[in-house]
Each structure stands twice: as structure tokens, then as C-alpha cells.
Amino acid sequence: MLAGMATLHPTLSRVTDRIIERSRPGRARYLDHIARERDAGMNRTMLSCSNLAHGFAGALEDQGTIKAGGRVNIGIVTAFNDMLSAHQPYGAYPPQLKLFAREVGATAQVAGGVPAMCDGVTQGTVGMELSLFSRDSIALATAVALSHGMFESAALLGICDKIVPGLLIGALRFGHLPMLFVPGGPMPSGLPNKEKQRIRQLAAEGKASKAELLEAESASYHSPGTCTFYGTANSNQMMMELMGLHIPGAAFVNPGTGLRNAMNRAAMHRLARIALRQPDERPLGHCVDERAIVNAIVGLLATGGSTNHAIHLPAIARAAGIRIDWQDFDELSAAVPLIARVYPGGAADVNQFHAAGGMAFTTRTLLDAGLLHGDILTAGGESLADYARDPVLYDTGLDWQDIAASRDDGILRSATNPFRPDGGMRLVTGNLGRAIFKTSAVDEERWTIEAPARVFDCQDAVNDAFRAGELERDVVVVVRGQGPRANGMPELHKLTPALGVLQDRGFKVALVTDGRMSGASGKVPAAIHLCPEAMSAGPIARVRDGDMVRLCGHSGTLDVVGDVAAFAAREPAVIAPSTHGTARELFTLFRDHSDDAEAGACAMLSAAGL
């Protein structure tokens, strides 16, 4: 234990030890793999003259430096496109990053690009059925980019939902290389998220026009930068901080500012310093260990982050030879207090969270409470303690300052004075399987719902029934056939306004689904990511209209109640998979070979035996 570090919380220690023991064989194989890759894998020393000449032919003024050898060459893997507001700033990054590398005698090259779809654009359309498996495509594209062996470290340019997990999964197969994520930051605050939610519900009731709805949406999503609600994209940034894979404090600095530019500069200087075969070499695969994964889970729970990471973190961990499950999340959730209220878990957006102390104070208070592993190997700082300081830009350059207290305890609190004593992400189990319930987003009086089921096979059918007045009662809406093997597990955001309206009308309402709701999981109680999924003949495929379903966040249970034997004896409904249109046919391999959500829903890792 490092001097000055708080004693680890016993639950954190126990869960980490269990993960280490469970992961021992796979982690040993992984560390052997990256050791072999470091010593005998693709690198510039083994390239022929022809190979090497091809590698620097397009490097312009850096040709001579790369040709001479002996200097660090930093690979840039970019998810730039200007359809994603979060990724639009990346268009200007490569020339700037190359200049920053030259300042310390290094060079940089764009190693490759990866796809980056915007869930905000595809939400509620069939295009969303490509979303989860875009993570696999991104991982594969990252591997292709790094396969050239031209680099001693790498800058990973990605922010949004599947993009950071995909980049990290692919990069971990080159875990002998040091790497940093270089984010772009959130857009400035626009229309408050609560107002946006209000207008969406009015539109769902037919009380707001399409023009009014579009005006509200475009006032919310209005400029380059990450969307400002605390969904999967911003949860990604939080996790990269607590895993030590950013320059400290880089997560929520706005694009186009002097401070953002200074952070990018610091990242390239750092990548030159920690690069392969440099004195302070910090390989990615050593940074991402069991303790770093636990830190990411803790941060997710403490800040009320995206439930998508109950899928992504198991996949990321597997890529590094580590095994985690939802029981780990559940036990940590019971010990980790909720210290942040950020939309949809509160009224504030991420800019307000950052102004209140953001990741610096979050890291500080969790370290002080013994709820983070402070002794992880960090890529962006000397230790995790560096991430407990706030970045500031002075005339003399970039520096970091201590932050002793939250600047707004209505948004961010200390671990000793939390909003809730638990992290609010529960595992619920029973005769319907295993699912995630984000209790932190739901008022506690609604944590237990028992009501008759109404079964649907798609979210559009739910909204049709809502408009027809068929759901004006206490109801558990069951939406099945939405798992990774059925249709790629799209997010079901189109359900949120209608179910929210029903709840506001005084009905007891819950959602049970083998699909996803993600970081925008809202105020309606929901058991999501249900495993086994209906496509695999999971129990959800046996639910019929009128079955009494009970969801309880207090006891952690999810059951069909009544004649349990008769329920178990039913034949499961036949689920018709989505197979064609909008290129879904090209993703058949991913769907057919995906494992379940708790294992990470990753066909690629399953096929590789990881």
C-alpha cells in the first residue's frame, strides 16, 4: 500500500481478490501473450527495408526521423467523423498531435481509422441493430491499425458509446504498447436535459408538435462536443480517468479551448516518455489489470453511470484475461455510495458536474474512503493520486491544483455525505433469469412493482399500444427478442417517454427486457439485459399476457409469480431474428456467435476463446 493511502474498503478488497483468483489462468495467458508480442511481435526492428520504406513514405517532414530510427513513433488511431458531434473536433487533431510529438523529439502517424456510429442518430431505427456489434468492428479495425508494427506507443482518439470499449478491446491485444486515450470534451450546455425530457413526454402525448420537438432537440444537441447528459459516452470518460488511461482531468474539458489544447499536448509528450523501451515504459496491458477494472466499476456506481458498461466492462476485462460478472457489480454497489447527481440521475449536466469538482473531486473522495485502488499503474500520471487534482492553464503552462471539497453539493458530494449509501446498480435474479436494475435513477417507492405482464416483440408495438390506450393500467411491459443473438441488442429509448407518461398518470409501471436502455435509463423501473435472452429460449420467451411479474430492487428478485411449475413447463415462443436490411445481413456472424450480455455480448472474443 502506498504511503498516505486509505485502507481499502473490505468489500473492495474481497471482490478484487475474488476477481484475481477467478481470472488467474486467463490473466497469466494474457501476460505471457503481451510479453511475447513485446519481444518477438511486429515492430520496426524486424521490418525489411521495403516494409519500412512503405511505412514512412507518406510521413513528409518526419520521413528522415523515422528512417534514422532510435526515436519514438506514436500511432494515432482515430474515430473521426463529423456526423458525431463528439468526434468532430478530431478532424483537426492529427496535424496538431504531430507537432506536439516533434516538440519532444518523437514522431506521430495516423495508423488507421475506425468506424464510429452515432446512437443518437440511429436510436429507434433498424440501424441501431448494428450498434452493439460496431464495438467488435471497431476492435478489429484498431487491431488492423496497430498490426503494422511501426509504433512504440499509441494515442486512441475516441469518446462515444461503443467506440471507447471497441478501441480498448482491440488495443489490449497489443497490450505491450503504452497507450493513452485523447478525448475531445463535451459541448457547452444547451437546453437543460429536464426540459428536453418534458417536451419529449409532451410529444409522446400529442401535446407538442414535431417542429417544437425538433427545436428542443436541436437546442440540446447544438454544437461540436460530446452530448452533455451522463450517458455511455461520458461514462466512458469517467472510466478512462479512474483506470489511469487519460492525462489527469482530461475527461470533461470543452473542445476548442486553450486548456483542451494543452491537455492534448501533454498527452503526446507523455506518450513519448512512457513508450516501448523507454525508461518509464508503461504497457497498456499492465495498466489494465484487475484493480483498474474494479476502479472502473466503482466509478460507474459512485457517479450513477451508464448500465451499458455492465456489458462493456466484462468484454474489456476479457480482452485483458480478466473475468468479472454482475455479482461483482452488485456487491460493489452495496458498498459504494452514490456521490453524483447528473442527468438522467439528476438535473445537472456534465459541464456542471465538472464545474462542481468533476473527476478530480470524485477521485479524491473515493481514494480517501478506500474505495479505489490507488496503487494501479497509470499511463497518464505517476499514480492515481494525480487524477485527484484539477487541471488549470496558467500563463506559464498547464498545471494541476488540489481540490479539497465539492463546489456544489447538490451535484457532487463526498463519500462520507453521499446522496445514497449504495451505488444503485442491482443484479436481479429469479425464474426469469438475471438482469440489471439501475435503482439510482428510480424513486425508491417504485423499486418494487408487481403487475400483469403485457408482452411485445418490439418497441414500436409498445408505443402503438400506448397510443391506443391499451396500457392505461398497472403493467409490466415485457419486450423480448431484443438480445444480442436476436437483433444485436438495440437500445430501447423509444419506450422511455410513453412509460414515463404512464407512470406520471399514477400507474405502477415497469419494463422487463432482454434489450438495453443504456446511460439514458430513466425514472421507470426496468430490468434490462435479461439473460438468457429469448432467442436462446430464455424464460422471458415463456411469458404471456396477464402473467403476474414481480420486480424488486430491494430483494434483488425478478420472477413470474403464481403457478411456477406451469410457467416452467411452457414452450418458449419462437423468436424471429432480424436478418436483412440496413446491412444487418453482414452482421449475421456477430449475432450467431455472440455470448450473453453478462459475458460481454462479444462474438469476437468468444470465437477467439478469450
What does this structure look like?
With 610 residues, the chain is of the alpha/beta class. Helix content is 38%, strand content 13%. The model has no long low-confidence stretch (mean pLDDT 94).
Question: Which key phrases capture this entry?
Answer:
13% strand; four-stranded parallel sheet; globular; eight-stranded mixed sheet; 610 residues; alpha/beta; 38% helix; Glucose Oxidase, domain 1; 23 helices
Structure, briefly:
This protein is of the alpha/beta class and 610 residues long. The protein has 23 helices and 14 strands. The protein is globular.
Stretches where pLDDT falls below 50 for ≥5 residues?
A: none
**Main sheet: strand order:** 7-8-12-11-10-9-13-14
CATH superfamily of one domain: IlvD/EDD C-terminal domain-like
**Portion in beta strands:** 5-15%
CATH topology of one domain, by name, is Glucose Oxidase, domain 1
Structural class: alpha/beta
Number of helices: 23
